Amino acid sequence: MDITTLVKLTSRAWSLNILALLHSGVPGRQAPLLAASGAGRTSFSASLEHLTQLKLLERNPGHGHPLRPEFRLTPAGIKAAEIASKIVTAVPNEKEFALLRKSWTVPILALTAAPQRFSGIRTNLVPITDRALSTSLVQLEEREWIKRDINTAARVPFPTYCAANAGQQINCAIDLRV
């Protein structure tokens, strides 16, 4: 999965969770998915529509009611669901899962396998603002998903960020080369 697809995928709060639930065998109807995810109806519906637009989900023809369709994973969705399942299982705690639902958490962790400077992360995540990146890095550092080190070897010291603990597990679940 490339970083652009990952950014698009995580731009909706419940997208990763929906894919992980479908991967684990939860039926593709809205009611079971909604109950299993614990999401609100509006955000859940927006995430479901978003996954359909990304062509990771499709309506299952001949199944479901027109107002309550049944969904299934597309071939691309099967690969994304496998990755989403690995990411979701790396964070079993509901409090920490709330951080995982934020837009930039997973893309930042995907880029920090090796130490990265702020500017390097920002360059790879083109649509992110400095404020959003800074806020996300602070939140990730508070949860100890990212380790911040100050490199004093250069003339001007600068911080580098690297995935750690649960952040490292999430990073390993994402293969940006695929």
Automatic annotation (TrEMBL):
Domain HTH hxlR-type residue range list: 100-174
InterPro entries: HTH_HxlR, WH-like_DNA-bd_sf, WH_DNA-bd_sf
Gene3D superfamilies in alphabetical order: Winged helix-like DNA-binding domain superfamily/Winged helix DNA-binding domain
Keyword annotations: DNA-binding, Transcription, Transcription regulation
A GO term for molecular function: DNA binding
Superkingdom of origin: Bacteria
Name of the protein in its database record: HxlR-like helix-turn-helix
Native organism: Pseudovibrio axinellae
